[in-house]
Amino acid sequence: MAFEQTQKEKVIESLMAARRQGQITEINLRFQGKTDEAEKVWQDNARLSAEIDILIGQMMDEWLGNAERAIKGLAKINTKLEAAVAEIKKQINVAQNVVKIIGLLDEAVAIAKKVVAGF
Amino acid sequence: MMIPKAQKSAPIVHRPLCFLVRILTIVLAILGVAGCASISPAPFTALTTSIQQLRDGADASLSLVHERTRNRYIVEAAAGDVAKIEALLLTQPAGDPFGWASPDPPLFLKVARFREGVHRLNSVLVGYAGLLGQLASPDLVSPEQFEKLARDLNDNLRTSVQAFADSGPSNKEIAIFSTLGTAAFQAYLKNKQRSSLLKALNSNQPAIQGTAELGASAVRITAMALRNEYDHSSQKLAVLIASSKLSDSGKQATLRELIELDEKFIKEISILRILHQSYMALPAAHQELATGVTDPKRGLPMVIELLENGRELYRLYEELSKDDKKKAAGIKS
Question: 20 to 30 A Cα–Cα from B239, which one of A106, B93, B286, B332?
């Protein structure tokens, strides 16, 4: 099965890549002692992080909506499978009962024969 | 036309019995049960095991994501992010005495709901695989059951027939009838078992395809969330290392921590890669089960791939757990 990233996945991926570049820039600026510039980049990154968190949360919510339908569909399938298993078990039970009934009939015939012989 | 004496004097019960034996022999031949290989339950057991591993693996990864998003939230809120503190003050939705709402639900709460949803989806999938296993199980139409049925039928028929007619069929003939009768019934049920299984496998293929796509998508979202947390944690450590206030030994210790974080992240993301591959292999493995029932000589490469992925997952979990134990021991000492 091949997979294709959704548009939203692509957007989040590119936002995360941009933030990563921002983080690397911030670290470089701190190593160079440019603290003010580094703080500014940090603030931009923080805003971007908040957006990324929101988008990840949205993706999770959307997924849950789709999963709910799939769970219901699979539950229906499972009910049908349970019925198929039960049907086979039931038929075996019926056969066992038929054999038992033959045994009971046999006893009834033996009793009937004795009764007939008594007349 | 001369009719042989023996045939002429055949008892009433005897003739229908001979006919029935012949019919039953034909039925057995049509169903081809004598030469037909029974369903192998092994691939179905393998599928159930693999899906259980998928469920456990996805849940373990999402547990990590939940813990990390929650910890990050605590740190950010504690640093004075008022909006984050406000989001923790849950309110009651109007008219819902049991509900709760947050003005801006924190990510960790969404992760918790997502984790529960993924677990539910995977559990229904585990249930499906288990039911397929039941339907494929040799125990469902077990030979022992039918041997007992044949014995009981034989015992009961013998006395019944003798009770009805003094010159009935021989014990041997009744035994053949009982054996063939139950064998035909067993063949019928085995055939029903096989056709029910095939019908289920074929008709549920699109549903399994859809579920596998959802599972794979959940793993990609999890990977995204895990990477998001890694990006935050690794950046924090790098900022510490860049700080001029930190001593050389402090920098070395933080660097070691960053390396360990990287190593851990590589293993965790590898687990997600394997989980993703397993979901991607699931539809083909499911399809293979159907072809395997039709032609048992066919190989099951995708089912085997799923099992191998499971072994690899176990190995990576073991490694991660060893690392955690080492780290915990290091902290204690």
Answer: B332
On whether the CB atoms of residues B14 and B275 are closer than 8 A, the answer is no
Which of B270, B281, B268, B266 lies closest to B216, judged by CA?
Answer: B281
pLDDT, one tens digit per residue, over B100-142 is 999 889 999 999 999 999 999 999 999 999 999 999 988 888 8
With an 8 Å Cβ cutoff, is A84 touching chain B? yes
How many interchain CB pairs under 8 A, A with B?
Answer: 163
Option in B120, B132, B228 nearest A52 (CB):
B228
> Which token pair is B76?
């950010």
Residues 6 or more apart whose CB falls under 8 angstroms from that of A23 comprise A45, B231, B235, B238
- A95: nearest CB among B149, B214, B242: B149
Identify residue A62 by its one-letter amino acid code. E
DSSP state of A46: H
| Residue B178 vs residues A56, A94, A111: alpha-carbon distances, Å | 66, 16, 24
Residues of B in contact with A94 (CB under 8 A): none
What is the ipTM score, two decimals?
A: 0.85
CA distance B90 to A25: 38
Alpha carbons B24 and B28: distance in angstroms, whole number: 6
Q: How far apart are CA B211 and CA B30, in angstroms?
A: 38
State how far the Cα of B226 lies from the Cα of B267, in Å rounded to an integer. 12
Residue of B65, B73, B156, B282 to mutate for A, most A C-beta atoms under 10 A: B156
pLDDT score of B9: 41
The neighbour count for residue A40, using CB atoms within 10 Å, is: 13
* Two tokens, residue B279: 């979901």
pLDDT, tens digit (0-9, with 9 covering 90-100), for B221-264: 999 999 999 999 999 999 999 998 899 999 999 999 999 999 99
In this model, does residue B2 exceed pLDDT 50? Answer: no
Residue among B136, B112, B119, B150 at smallest CA distance from B57:
B119
What pTM does this model have? 0.82
| Whether B228 and A31 lie within 8 Å, measured CB to CB | no
For residue B37, the 8-state DSSP code is P
d(CA B265, CA A27): 20
Contacts of B265 (CB under 8 A, 6+ apart): B226, B227, B230, B234
DSSP B297-320: TS--HHHHHHHHHHHHHHHHHHHH
Chain B CB within 8 Å of residue A62 CB = no
Buried-state track B227-258, b at ≥16 Cβ within 10 A, e below 16: bbbbbbbbbebbbbbbeeeeeeeeeeebeebb
